[in-house]
Amino acid sequence: MSDLPVHLRTSEHGEATGNTVYAQVGGMQTFETLCTKFYDRVQQDEVMWPMYPQDDLEGAIWRLSRFLGQYFGGPATYSSVRGHPRLRMRHVAFHINPDARDRWLRHMTEAVDEMDFAPAIRATMLDYFDRAATAMVNTFEPTPNASDNSR
Ligand code: HEM
What we know:
Elements: H1 6-9, H2 21-25, H3 28-42, H4 57-71, H5 77-82, H6 87-90, H7 98-113, H8 119-135
Helix pairs in contact: 3-4, 3-7, 7-8
Protoporphyrin IX containing FE binds at residues 48, 51-53, 60, 63-64, 67, 82, 87, 90-91, 94, 96, 100-101, 104, 129, 132-133, 136.
Protein name: Globin
Family: Belongs to the truncated hemoglobin family. Group II subfamily.
Pfam families: Bac_globin
């Protein structure tokens, strides 16, 4: 059943294999593509990129795409490898002020918009990303050494 083309997997055709967002967008490959597009943008961002593991971009794409795939109804691969998400706790080490939140959300929104998702899927994702990114804010201090980030 999972080999069905995406349009046959949606419940409106009565052929649903599960009406999760995960199934409707075509499974893990789609989340990997989305996260690759997201990280393409993060790499261009002089505030965000220094926070990320520069030598493990593939690992970062793997972690984010497995988490999102799981969150949106796919297999629990993220939790079986990384444990309980506890996302806010995992982000405490990073300096996430409202500017970082806005940057994360802007890069993710642009990545979503490159994917040509159905409007309801797009809205569901952006609603979640907006709330999740706001929940990750852990400081109102300005970005430290913002002007020296190119070092
Ligand atoms: C608000 C701004 C955010 C910033 C600045 C930020 C930054 C980071 C950084 C620097 C990492 C480490 C990269 C890695 O090794 O995987 C990370 C990991 C991660 N982030 Fe975020 N993040 C933000 C928001 C979010 C949101 C909204 C989500 C979920 C919707 C999210 C999900 C994750 C996940 C799943 C990981 C991997 C955790 C792990 O297993 O270690 N992040 N984030």
